[in-house]
Amino acid sequence: MTEAPVIGVLALQGDVREHLVALAAADAVARPVRRPEELAEVDGLVIPGGESTTISKLAVLFGVMEPLRARVRDGMPVYGTCAGMIMLADKILDPRSGQETVGGIDMIVRRNAFGRQNESFEAAVDVKGVAGDPVEGVFIRAPWVESVGAAAEVLAEHEGHIVAVRQGNALATSFHPELTGDHRVHALFVAMVRANRTAESL
Questions:
Q1: List 82, 158, 183, 186, catalytic entry
Q2: Catalytic site residue 178?
Q3: Among 32, 60, 86, 134, which is 20 to 30 Å from 50 by CA?
Q4: CB-CB contact of 43 with 6 (8 Å)
């Protein structure tokens, strides 16, 4: 077995610890990332849920926004959940003032589309590329994807709305798989990171 990939979790805000646990369970070396020098040491990155405007502003403040954009452009695997999905969108339908995104997926995302905090819910979601039973998705002030470009692949829908998308090495879900104890979506991302690392070494 090849050496475990090193995958960072952007540790500016949100459910960082849960992602670190899920990545470790999926056979990755997981570590928090806050600064450019920490970003430079990982094979892939998870952008967790939280508040997308806050994450955006903190990423700029900590000096990681531009290096992160550059690495995503260069093909580093990245996975965003909930607010992380918003961060990976090339366009936000209703951005807050001063809100920036990393980009990487040709999609338009609507913030808080599934409602407010008190309208959070769980739902079984069939995710393309994840074998077995549906994934139990936790939706907390979750976005949905209004539309995707030709390069983006829809992996899952819920009630007619797109909730999981992949484009190349970028993966995004509206929901939080890290909160359920089911690590199959993280395992999918770890496999993407492994495949990318293998391709780069050829």
A1: 82
A2: yes
A3: 134
A4: yes
Q: 86-137: per-residue pLDDT in tens?
A: 999 999 987 776 788 999 999 999 998 988 777 899 999 999 999 999 999 9
- Find out whether 12 and 35 touch, Cβ atoms under 8 Å: no
Cβ 188 vs Cβ 28: under 8 Å: no
Is 176 tagged catalytic? yes
Q: Which residue(s) pair with 43 in the sheet?
A: none
Chain mean position to CA 98: 21
In the set 18, 19, 158, 178, the catalytic residue is: 178
Active site residue 100: no
Residue 184 zone, left/alpha/beta (φ > 0; ψ -120 to 50; rest): alpha
Q: Which of 78, 84, 85 is nearest to 145 (CA)?
A: 85
Looking at the chain, the number of H-run helices and the number of E-run strands are 6, 12
Catalytic residue of the set 19, 158, 176, 186: 176
Helix (H) or strand (E) segment spanning residue 125: strand 121-125
Average pLDDT estimate for 165-185: 96
